Amino acid sequence: MLRIYLVRHGQTAWNQVGRIQGHSDTPLDAVGWRQAQQAAQWLSVRIQKPVAVYSSDLQRAWHTAQAIADALGAPLHPEPALRERHWGLWEGLTSDEIQQRFPDHHFTYLYDPMMGTPPEAEPMQAFWQRVRAFGHRLLEQHPSGEVVVVGHGGSLRILLCEALAGDIQTYRRIRLDNTGVSIVERAGERLYVSLLNYTDHLNDPSVDGF
Hints:
Blueprint: E1 2-8, H1 13-17, H2 30-46, E2 50-55, H3 59-72, E3 76-78, H4 95-101, H5 103-111, H6 124-141, E4 145-151, H7 153-164, H8 168-171, E5 181-187, E6 190-198
Parallel strand pairs: 1-4, 2-3, 2-4
Antiparallel strand pairs: 1-5, 5-6
Helix pairs in contact: 2-3, 4-5, 6-7
């Protein structure tokens, strides 16, 4: 049995105000640091024999992953393929700002998110393929054991879609909160999603604030 724990990064200031982050290397805010510790503590109780922790190399994910790897005593591996989609000229903007500055592109993206690429952004198909390739490598390298993958809302939703045999419409219907934990399991050749966006660890009062 292979069990993969998918963890979205902790909160950033941009998350708070709804700014698109993409490849922008935004740091965790004080709440995000606490969330990372809460997730790490929860995982340390449930993961018995961690094999490895893989993380996007953007600091909001990397620092979340460091807290988890430290708690588990597991090796931490940077994985650029887990980065969020590069959103081009939309990065740093809110949805309202995008609608005002790029009304035509915004409409096209909403109508067809697979083909409607924002200006200077990474095409969705390319984003999907790079994350999918990481997922295949992960399955090849780890036939069994417990692995943690720390990434972003976009990259982790693609991994979940692959497990669910989903498409872009499935992708748009998955919600992942900051440090929400999802679990994908492999039994034989079949993948299962056994947990989706678990966040009860964020109610743990035993973790000190920052």
